[in-house]
Specification:
The structure is a single chain. By secondary structure, the chain is mainly alpha-helical. The chain has one domain (17-46, 72-426). The chain contains 20 helices and two strands. It has helices at residues 2-13, 18-43, 49-52, 54-61, 78-96, 101-106, 108-128, 153-169, 182-196, 201-218, 222-240, 245-256, 259-267, 269-276, 281-284, 291-303, 314-317, 329-362, 366-390, 408-426; strands at 143-145, 149-151. Strands 1-2 form a two-stranded antiparallel sheet. A hairpin with a 3-residue loop joins β1 and β2 (149-151). The protein is globular, with a radius of gyration of 23 Å.
Amino acid sequence: MITAMINILSKIFTGRLAIIRLLMLTSAILLFLMGLAMIYAAGNPARSEQQADPNQAQQAVQDTYENKPDAQSPLAFVWKRQIIYAIAGILAFLCVNLIDYRRLGAVSYWLYAGVLILLTVLVLDIKFNFPFVPVVKGARRWIRIGSFVQIQPSEFCKIAYILALAWYLRFRSNYRTIRGLIGPFALTVLAMILILLEPDLGTVLLMMPILFSMLFVAGARVRHLLLVMALAVLVSPLLWHFMEDYQRMRISCVLLQNEKIFNIVKKNPRIAKVLVGDPDKLRTWKRNEGYQLIHSKQAIASGGLTGYGFAKGPYNQYNYLPERHNDFVFAMVAHQWGLVGCGLVLVLYVVIFAGGLEIAYVNTDPFGRLAAVGIVAMFAVEVIVNISMTLGLTPITGLTLPFVSYGGSSLLGSFIALGLLNNIGRIRPFSVAGKPFEYAEQ
């Protein structure tokens, strides 16, 4: 048994691009450990003299909300669940590497179809109210299995979509025409619609950058991609009217941070009507819709160069920032470890991005190269969007930070994606054809 395990591990972690792949896995594990520390600290803050006197602490922070010390925080034990999720993720990483990644390509359409069926079940719950689909804050994103296990199909949809799209594009050249782009876009929009109905705006925003990245590497004409992007910009004002009020306010809050824009909106009722609906929201948006955004920025700014220290600081000891263990975990990294901690997180992600791109570059298999590019694009967009929303640069979307944020489906999906990169990197495909993606100009 032990000998068999050693042989399997030796096969997975040796061979082609071994150093790069080990660096990527090491970076992912370090990111997980940093995230685990933040999750633990969120539910088990360090005790301080300031925290011993809640009234004095509240008065010092000058907050209008009731923020009591989390002496019995509901987050106190979630770090243990995160460890279980990580074990499952590592096992999934190993399992993905037990077979040749090209076999996954052959069944990628079926995998994608299976995930789409799960997404359809979530949408149908709006009418049928299935007992295994919990409604959390008005969203139907999870399917409950038993008493303790919940899966989020949209997390696995990203991976299945990348595999299916890579398999579709691998030997085609018709997407170098506008008509040829219909297939890839149809494959993408189908999942986007189902995910948007959950609703899960973060995952929806993720899929188009993945599509454009893979099309670009596959050889699609840049002018065609720019044309599609221009059309999307022109159509976007129409989508504004189909958004829910809270979705529009998330976008508006990003604009209202700017004092000049806020004053313009305040003086023009028509603009205020479009952006916030009820003009009274201009007076209360910082305490309501913009609460997380404002406090996220304050948590980051207060961390300074080195931060307050592990499990310390007002934003860790008091519940000023909801979802600080999940969507806003990067803000807590900055709060506790400052600019130094943030820099370390970014360096670890750069290692993963650079390694993934190197794997794609040296791979001569069209399917493997496209899948690697899609996975790197997925990770990159998740990181950029999550960090940008904590800084107030983009709307709050609920997109998690890979390997760092709390969540079983997110962590499991990230390790599966990393396992696919490792699989693609270690296998040298044999090909008698010319190099892929080198088509003559048409």
